[in-house]
Amino acid sequence: MGDHMHSSARVPGSLRRPLTGAVPESPRRGQPRVDVNAAKLMTAACLLAASPASLAIAQSTSSNNPLPPLSVEANSAKKRAQSSQPSSAGSAAPAPAPEPTPEQKAASPYVDPVAPYKVQESGSNKITEPLADTPKTITAVSKQVLEDTATTSVRELARQTPGVTLGFAEGGNAFGDSLYIRGFNARGDIFVDGMRDPGNASRETFAVEQVEIYKGPGGTIAGRGVTGGAINLITKKPNEAYNFVDVSTMFGTDKTVRTTVDVNQVISSGLAVRGNVLFHDSHVAGRDDDVQDQRWGGLLAATIKPTDAFKFTIDYYRLRTDGVPDFGVPFDPRTKLPVTETAGVPRDTWYGDARPGRDFMKNEADIVTGTAEWKVSDGVKVTSKTRVGRTTVDYLASSTEETSISDATLPSTWTATAHNANRLQQTDLIGNQTDVTLKFATAGFRHTVVAGVELSREEVTQQSYQRNGANLPNQAVNLLDPQPLSAAAQLAATPNNLTAPINRLLDTTAVYLLDTIKLNPQWTLNAGVRLDHFDRTDTGPHPAAPNPNNDPNGSRQDTFFNWNVGLVYKPIPIAAFYVAYATSTNPVGQELDATQVDYGGLTLSLSGLKPEQNTAIEVGTKWELFNRHLLATAALFQTTKENAREPNPLGNPNPPTDTGEFRVRGVELGAQGKLTERWSVYGGLVVMETEVTDSSNPRYIGRRLANIPNTQFNLLTKYQLTENLTIGGQAVYASEVFGGLFAAGQVGTAAQPDAFNRIPEHWRFDLLSEYRFSNNFSAQLNVVNVTNELYYDSLYRAATPFAFVAPGRAGYLTLNWKY
User: Which distant-in-sequence residues (6+ apart) come within 8 Å of 586 by Cβ?
Assistant: First the structure.
């Protein structure tokens, strides 16, 4: 996404960059894991491959075959920043431009070239204006921010991004990147290069150029869902101007070893290729040593440009993960806090089982994307993107919920129940997104129009693990000292077969029209409309006791319309003021893997429920300060949801209702870029007020929404002390979070109908430093969670919840080679 056409074509958004076939297959359940010797061997091989002698061959074409400069605005800005020195007196010929450094060759095309914390351009071709002139809050996380904070996954990014919150695999959803944005569930609103990524997997950042978080409803841009916002991962694409090699190797506490390789080669003036490779092996800071995380991945992309007017890019993305999961700790019923807060349970206590055949967590992704771009004329450009892929989520995890706990007894006598959260889910996707970008003037107004069509088919096959045709039994473990189960109990809890599959099929057809109208140099009008047709069918085994509330068979069709409008006023070139209004729709059954209706699932009982309708208004301002190298933003926003699906109280067999109304109001501040030539900053603050404004149960009206911190803050800053040494740090804060199904405290027992389970507020502090030995070699040191703060990612929404324990203090040394 993200190309803009001026006098010359802008490089459009990147595609999904996949990998080579040299990535080892993830072992299946019950097979041995890759041992640490293999990790060391692979790391040593990567270090050897990164040596100057071996890289010299790869660089031979850069000096012998110089290529003409690209007509790309971002790259042009870089070239202007690297302008040649004045010629000597009496000489008419300018001095040749200096050779770009390896870092400049691999720089992101979307950022300010001298302030890489500041993202200037979106990677989406539906956002045609610079971010500073776009009437919407967009939190853009550059590649430099990801590298400086040692962020390796979307989950880690969510921990430190205001307005984004981690959730659980709730309501029957598969475990993966479950996120909330501005108070609303966004687990299905994750995109890669502008196309929906429905696999519900745990996503890596090794092949990501930048992450864009669009705040507020965005039905015209993204289609279904997108109540609080959406996340768009912009992947790395071939660079048509330079050859470069970037190798990073990380060594850290908790047995962390990570190597990434990024290689770009310009084969000829019409062919460039880029490959990214990942190997990652680690445990989790502050948790039991049995909790592990291994990842292998790659992205291989090639751009072919037979003429100046036509370009085709194809890429293949491959990811494999294999780990032992950690589903956290239960709650203390006396205090409504996690047992690690008040019951004397050590923070590293783990209730899983690492023996063969038991707890495991695997993800697989194989995705191919092809993009054709045709510049018909200076004012007309056609882009067609096709994607085919498969994602598999496969896990069995012990999730602890307290059952045998009494206020009158001591914690030493308590037992926790280890439930068996499990899923084998395969998601297939085939989709096409074709749009035409038109630039023209009429009646003195300049238009940039994006008109397009999206077609997609998403198909999910879902199964659960069983033992001899029965559900896996829950197991009681001692709260303070969980011990491995007996051989007989462990055998009973080890699966040996799968349930019959449930098949879910969703076909989506959409058309959209977006227009940015330059009324004059000060005023710009942004507007868009979109029409979606949603057609879902589920088939699977009928329950033994017929019940329309849990029968997986069903179908649903909806056609919905969304629109947006925004007005921008720029009294001076560095400042913009805007007001915007937007809508989105959550159809029944929007989450393909969900088994509960209030979380987007579908059953036979839902024929009468209406789609949820979301609206938002936002008023804000954006300023480019400090020689336009810092983007400062401020916005007031309000999002409302009508026809909200509400679960009935616990034990009520009736299906959810659609009579709820929710509202979120807040203010968001942000800053990214440079204050001085040596001082960079990136951060934000979100303060929200959430409320249930209407409900089928009057008791919940006026409650805050569950599972959301009302205040979040982060500030990353670094300062270049000398030409070689840079130091910095980050502070992250989140206020307390209350549990519940949708309203805080909604879950509970008859004796405690308003029990407020909660996780406390927290501060986290990180340190970073980097020393550059040369343009080709540097070392970076990160210390994450310096104070070893005990905090939690999220809590399960049930009456007997559990909480994910976030990582403790960790240190990482990263060695970077760039050529």
Answer: 224, 225, 227, 600, 611, 612, 614, 641
* pLDDT score recorded for residue 173: 63
**Concatenated DSSP letters for 103-158?**
HHHT--TTEETTEEEEE-S-S-TT--S-GGG-SS-EEEEEHHHHHHTT--BHHHHH
Alpha-carbon dihedral sign for residues 62, 66, 72, 77: positive
For residue 87, give both structure tokens.
């010629």
pLDDT in tens, 6-33: 433 333 343 333 333 333 333 334 344 4
Residues 257 and 744: their CA atoms lie apart, in Å, by 41
What DSSP state is assigned to residue 217?
-
Say how far apart CA 217 and CA 3 lie, in whole Å: 23
Q: Please count the structural domains in the chain.
A: 1
Looking at 154-168, 174-188, 257-271, 535-549, which range is the least confident one? Answer: 535-549
d(CA 318, CA 18): 5
Q: How many CB atoms lie within 10 A of CB 523?
A: 13
Tens-digit pLDDT profile for residues 756-778: 889 999 999 999 999 999 999 99
- Indicate which CATH number applies to the domain containing 801: 2.40.170.20
Full DSSP string of 454-489? EEEEEEEEEE-EEETTEEPPPEEEESSS--PPPHHH
Amino acid letter for position 747: V
Buried/exposed 343-371: b ≥16 CB within 10 Å, e otherwise? bebebebbbbbeeeebbbbbbbbbbbbeb
Find the mean pLDDT for residues 575-600.
85
Lookup: tokens for 178: 């479950």
Query: Quick check: is 82 in a domain?
Result: no
pLDDT at 656 over 90: no
For residue 385, give the nearest of 393, 402, 396, 373 by alpha carbon.
373
Mean pLDDT of the chain: 85
In a domain, residue 606? The reply is yes
- Domain assignment present for 1: no
User: Rounded to a whole number, what is the largest CA-CA distance in the chain?
Assistant: 95
The predicted pLDDT at position 386 comes to 98
Token pair 């979109």 in the structure block, residue: 530
Strands (E) located in 707-760: 711-720, 725-734, 737-738, 758-759
Q: What is the side-by-side strand order in the sheet with 195-196? A: 138-142, 208-215, 229-235, 190-192, 195-196
Sign of CA dihedral 354, 356, 358, 360: positive
Range of 329's domain? Answer: 36-62+106-818
**CA-based torsion, 598, 604, 607, 608: positive or negative:** negative
Rg of the chain, C-alpha, whole Å: 26
Inter-CA distances, 583 with 218, 303, 617, Å: 6, 36, 9
Decide the pairing of beta strands 337-338 and 329-332: antiparallel
Write the pLDDT tens digit of every residue in 671-710: 999 999 999 999 999 999 999 999 988 888 999 999 899 9
The band of 489, judged by pLDDT with boundaries at 50, 70 and 90, is: confident
Mean pLDDT of 624-628: 97
Is 72 a domain residue? no
